[in-house]
Queue: 2 jobs
Job 1
Amino acid sequence: MKKRIGILTSGGDCPGLNCVIRAAVSHATLTYNWEVVGIPYATQGLLERQTVPLNMHGWDLRGIDPLLNMGGTILGSINKGDTLASASEILASYEALGLDALIAVGGDGSLKIIHELATLGNWNLVGIPKTIDHDVALTERSIGFDTAVNTIVDAINRLTFTAASHDRVMIVEVMGRTAGHLALHAGIAGGADVILIPELAYSIKGLFDHLTQLRDRWRRKFAIIVVAEGASSCLEDIENAASCTVAKCGRGQYIADQIASCSNNQIDTRVSVLGHIQRGGIPSALDRLTATVYGKTAVDLIAQEKYDQMLAWQNGQVIPIPINQVLDQSPSLVNTHSYLIETAQALGIYVGKVTGDR
Ligand code: F6P
């Protein structure tokens, strides 16, 4: 039976989403001769019962395929709250749009909303994990993370030279409100001196002592601090907070102010908040590959009529996992006793206070 498949992208955008769309459309068209339609702006498009045709031969660009290296999502996305208030209308949209199955590409928040709708409405759903935060449980790969890590590493490289030229401490604030994967991966790969993540409390004194040691023992006159936007400080720091508060200034500026006050303004700091630069850009080769495999496999799951599953990357294989199981576990945070934390510490990077440290 010829199927009509819907695909949507939900939550914060990231590089690689268009690669999923491309792979799903190509495979569904070439292998199964199905029709694929895009649902613009995720649940909003469902609510408004809108679709856009997705035809692999429809891009009139002299044979050039633009989707592989385009950041963002051609379908648009929304990243606000939940729309379950309008659930009854959305539930009917699936049938009204004549869908046989729906592929939803999202992070844990979006997948939760769409999974709830799919359960209520009896939709045939396949989920694909994407998030630059890398916090969807039970999968080793989420689309967008690798590109964002590369973007941060590139920023650290650039900042290192200017930091060294001016003997400055550069503070790079990166995304990650609850999960520190981005800061940890990029910090190690970029050669940071300090990495601060939400999962490990740091103290300004520990941080300041580390900078002092870098200067006195290793004759390093500059330093790079990578800090996740949700990095947490020890209680004693919060109690002694200066006029700048995290809520007002952001974590990067807060740390800069604390360093200035500990050093009597002797340490020159500058803060770079990378913000949404981390969400943009051309997808890395790894993200393209992951997205392509996920897009293709989602279509195969639909062919097998295996629904309510999220695709996950585990031990080099792509496997389906019941979405419920994934949502029961989310979010996946940095394991503070993992080989990455151990590696950072072994290289003399300050990462805050790991339980069991003296
Ligand atoms: O996708 C997750 C994330 O990148 C967070 O790390 C960040 O805080 C948030 O999105 C910002 O999203 P927006 O500005 O789109 O609401």
Job 2
Amino acid sequence: MRRGLFLTLEGLDGSGKTTQINRLAAWLKKRGHSALVTRQPGGTETGDRIRGLVLDSRSTNLAPMAEMALMFADRAQAIAEVIQPALEAGKIVLCDRFTDSTEAYQGGGRELGSATVLELHRLICSNLQPDLTLLLLPGLEASLHRARRRNQRTAELSGPDEGRFEAEQEAFYGRVWRKYREIAVREPDRVVLIEGDLSIDEVHEQIVEAVAERLAGLATGTYA
Ligand code: TMP
């Protein structure tokens, strides 16, 4: 059976990924495609537990290598349990973050370097590559502002504490931001860079344009 289509969304905290992934899923549904939406870390029962552990600001003193290993443990589980079976069934998978996040946050932000992340991806994830990655990269200032606001709202709502990354300093986010740009420059065929402080509608337009192009290129395929 033909392999499905694997799409990932990437960006800093507060870049609007979740809104855009939901709008893209609705857009696909309207055109008769059913998309499976998942996220990392999370998306499986084990992954949700890893998410709780790794994002909770009470997880203090987590070593960068331990943090990266947890991200890959989550990803290995998600690939085995959700992503690979869906792709084998010919489905469209929309994944909110994938290994580019590890390269940007742990490779760039935590300064573990790209080479280690890419090597682990090859070993742990059989080097599974997205067919298309949509990278939302508004200006750094705008991203930081949105991340702080979101974190404050989450704290007020007494939901699960997911603030460990958002409590990071601006220098950390600067490194994440620059690593994301580096990935986009390195892999222009896979990564569509959506830059600037655009409206939600404008970002959606750019996303559907890129996705429509990929779908047209695969017009002979069928998606469940
Ligand atoms: P989210 O709120 O967009 O789901 O992101 C969860 C946080 O986890 C976000 O701050 C980025 C971080 N993260 C990493 O540091 N490395 C990774 O590999 C992934 C998937 C997420």
